[in-house]
Amino acid sequence: MHILAIDVGTSAVKAAVLDVASAEAVIEPVHCSYSLDRPDRDTATIPPDRLWNAVAEAATRAAASAKVAVEGVGLSCMTPALVLLGRNDEPVAPIWTHFDRRSRPLAQKLANDAERCREFLEHACNPPLPGGMSALSACRQLELKPGLLVASYLHANGWLGLKLTGERAIDTAGACFTGLYEPRRTKSWSATWCEYFGIELGWLPKVVCGSTTLGGLRQEIASAWKLPAGIPVKLGTADTSSAMLAAGMKAGDLLHVVGTTQVLAAFADPPMPHMRRLCRPLGIGDAFIHVTHNPVGGEALSWLFSLCFDSPLFDEQERDQAKRHFFETVVKEQALHHETEVVLDPPFLGGDRLEIADKSAAFRNLKLATGKLDLVAAVLAGMRRGHTEAHTNLGLGSTWRRIFLTGGGADVVERLQLQEYAGAELHTLKEGSLRGVARLFG
Question: Is pLDDT of 385 > 80?
Fold first, then answer.
């Protein structure tokens, strides 16, 4: 069986036709990049048409180039990415991604009320995170636009599923990321917290397992994408969960995603909510996972390249050469073994999904003799410190059987020789969030 897998990230949509038995792509995945709208540091949205056009282009190209019969469609998505719809099922506002921090005042107000914050943590299994819990984003949108006429509340995979099938739903991981759903005992929407955030219960969709078949592919979409009408469409779940499925992870395994920031994820039995981690259903089946973040990742190194190693005089070819030299030679060879007194303190560059209050980083012990290599070495040392904190915050002990590294900077992390990984089997996972979509059909 071959299926079309669609993976929606924060900067690109990837699509590929996968063999379900092996979870391998028939041909190289198609990438369609797009940008988030970031007019200020707290705003991070995407117009719905921009996202849909990227999805449609990636899907059409992948299906056309595979030259095999496609028998299903499945999704993996950044989560949460809030889509509020009107009565005509059209979005009434841009999609608010998890990078959007405009609900920070609401999160801070709730966090400052110790008793109410404990109630929220016990209910939602997560802190009241700006961007991280989409109910706060919805509440803020309604404050900014009080006349907004909302009829439905979905996340990105649910909205895409609606466009593909005409049916609406949210997976259990996505429901947990709203802050309105109680995932452990009642497994239902909370009227109390809906009232607190100004959300109507009637807006919320049914909650289902991410491997659920929403419905058959609509004729209109099937014709545009050159696929058979009526083939099953799977709702899917969060990209981190999808990567765990691709790896075939079990208890005692760890996923380490190296992207803009870094993500650690592992199965948790029993789940233990905490203010310094995410605790949620996997999205497929009944398992729960713990997720933490290291805010020093690829974005920090890219920023340092732009600041110290790039030049406005470079043409495109020279800039590509300089970037390759920076990551392959400066980062992976020179800076890893360079001793410096410069310290990145706190280790915070790139943003942390677990933050509520705004934070900044600083380089300490700078001198006139400080060079560019000192700064790179300090960032790598900050990466190690951030990893130790994130690893501790998982709350799952320190011994791992297998560790799966995935993302563009996985080889950099492997060279850091992190002490927490001593004795574990290290595996590189390619295109994990995309390939995990195949497991929805297995």
Answer: yes
Q: Which domain holds residue 205?
A: 2-249
Mean pLDDT of the chain: 95
| Counted domains in the chain | 1
Q: What is the pTM of this model?
A: 0.94
Let me know if residue 150 belongs to a domain: yes
Cα distance between residue 268 and residue 114, in whole Å: 25
Within a domain: 434: no
Do the beta carbons of residue 310 and residue 271 sit within 8 Å? no
Residue 234: inside a domain: yes
Mean pLDDT of 32-48: 96
Angle formed by the axes of helices 134-144 and 104-112, to 10°? 120
Give the C-alpha separation, 25 to 28, whole Å: 6
127-173: pLDDT as tens digits: 999 999 999 999 999 999 998 999 999 999 999 999 999 999 999 99
What DSSP assignment string belongs to 200-228?
A: -GGG---EE-TT-EEEEPPHHHHHHHT--
At 397, list the tokens: 């002990």
Task: Report the C-alpha gap between 422 and 375 in whole angstroms.
Answer: 27
- Taking the C-alpha atoms of residue 302 and residue 315, their distance in angstroms, rounded to an integer, is 18
The rounded distance, in Å, linking the Cα atoms of 335 and 412 is: 11
| Contact present, 345 and 364 (Cβ < 8 Å) | yes
Torsions phi, psi for 67 (to 5 deg):
60, 35
CATH code, domain with 138 = 3.30.420.40
Both tokens assigned to 34: 């797009």
Q: How far apart are CA 408 and CA 430, in angstroms?
A: 9
